[in-house]
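FW: tagging you since you asked about this chain on Friday. Here's the raw sequence from the shared folder, copied in full. Didn't touch anything.
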Amino acid sequence: MQNNIKYFEILTNLRKQLGLIDSVHFLAEAHNGFLPDEVIADFYRVSDALLFPSREEGFGIPLIEAAFSHLPAFCADIPPLRKLGLNDAQFFSPDEDPARVAKMIADYFQNSMSARLAMRARASFRWEAIYRQHIAPLL
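HL: got it, structure written out here
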């Protein structure tokens, strides 16, 4: 538990150093305790991908949860994640240049028909978009 607290402090300090206070959010800041499985499943459902840059994992449960939600997975190339993902996830070194990881992810989304369709559907059929395109013009 103490290691988790230290790691969280490192992450929040890094967010501040990088000027990402308004862009990076941690659930631990908004909610105390464990989130119900249904809430976690909802996060996977509205996600485009799993980015899993972990350097250490005992098993890799997020990779399994992403698979259940049909999400593409981009994982650090460490033994537990490689064993789970086999040829069905994309791997990168935990020390890889972030720009190269970003390019790998961008290439995937540019070349995957199902990913493009999912992103377009999420952008076009959110309540805000439906209101803006179909309801607001009537008012």
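FW: The chain has a mean pLDDT of 89.
HL: agreed, and The longest helix spans residues 2-17.
FW: great, closing this out.
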